[in-house]
């Protein structure tokens, strides 16, 4: 999880650099490439997965909701920063375009000091000691055996579950209606008023 987030941050910094240099290079294509790279990044699902896995059970719901909060906050800051009086002027708009790299840079510097996700260490790597160490680092000293037991139960459940590839998921008739609903909801999210909020 952590390595994927770090790689994602590098992608965002590269995208921000490309967009920031578009005026110097006199290339609107660089803006399109940078925006495409921002769209390809996996910020939102990775954030939710990592934060959800490193949070104690009693704070997990709150931690998972932070992604929506920061998404909306980012949109609001972008709208405010884009005003002509701030970064929306003709000379400063490249800085506005490149500003998406700033949070990625902060996370790129700070994330190496955080441990890997305990469920990832135990379920995918089979590293029980690493999982215990990560839990102690995240949640402090104390008795965390109940959380480790929950992860072990989840691991046992996952052993009996077949993981489908994207192509297998699309071809599987049992998941077709759920897939249609998710695609429609995701495609129409811009119509729900989140930008206004």
From TrEMBL:
- Keyword Manganese, does the record have it? no
Entry's Gene Ontology molecular function annotations: D-glucose transmembrane transporter activity
Topology within the bilayer: Multi-pass membrane protein
- Alphabetized PROSITE patterns for the sequence: MFS
An individual GO BP term: D-glucose import
Q: What Gene Ontology cellular component terms go with this record?
A: plasma membrane
| Source organism, top-level taxon | Eukaryota
Q: Which compartment or compartments is the protein found in?
A: Membrane
Question: Which parts of the sequence belong to the Major facilitator superfamily (MFS) profile domain?
Answer: 1-197
| SUPFAM superfamilies reported in the protein's UniProt record | MFS general substrate transporter
* Swiss-Prot/TrEMBL keywords: Membrane, Transmembrane, Transmembrane helix
Name the PANTHER family on file: MAJOR FACILITATOR SUPERFAMILY (MFS) PROFILE DOMAIN-CONTAINING PROTEIN, SOLUTE CARRIER FAMILY 2
Q: What is the official name of this protein in its record?
A: GTR5 protein
- This protein's encoding gene: Slc2a5_1
């Amino acid at each position: 999880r952590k390595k994927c987030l770090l790689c994602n941050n590098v992608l965002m910094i590269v995208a921000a650099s490309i967009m920031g240099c578009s005026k110097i290079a006199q290339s609107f294509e660089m803006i399109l490439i940078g925006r495409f790279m921002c769209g390809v990044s996996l910020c939102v699902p990775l954030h939710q997965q990592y934060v959800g896995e490193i949070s104690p059970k009693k704070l997990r719901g709150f931690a998972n909701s932070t992604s929506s909060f920061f998404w909306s906050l980012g949109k609001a800051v972008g709208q405010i920063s884009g005003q002509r009086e701030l970064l929306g002027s003709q000379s400063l708009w490249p800085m506005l375009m490149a500003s998406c790299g700033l949070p990625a840079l902060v996370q790129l510097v700070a994330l190496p000091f955080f441990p890997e996700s305990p469920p990832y260490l135990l379920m995918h790597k089979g590293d029980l000691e690493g999982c215990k160490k990560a839990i102690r680092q995240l949640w402090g000293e104390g008795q965390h055996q109940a959380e480790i037991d929950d992860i072990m139960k989840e691991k046992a459940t996952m052993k009996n579950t077949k993981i489908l590839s994207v192509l297998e998921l699309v071809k599987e008739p049992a998941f077709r209606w759920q897939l249609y609903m998710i695609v429609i909801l995701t495609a129409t999210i811009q119509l729900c008023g989140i930008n206004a909020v």
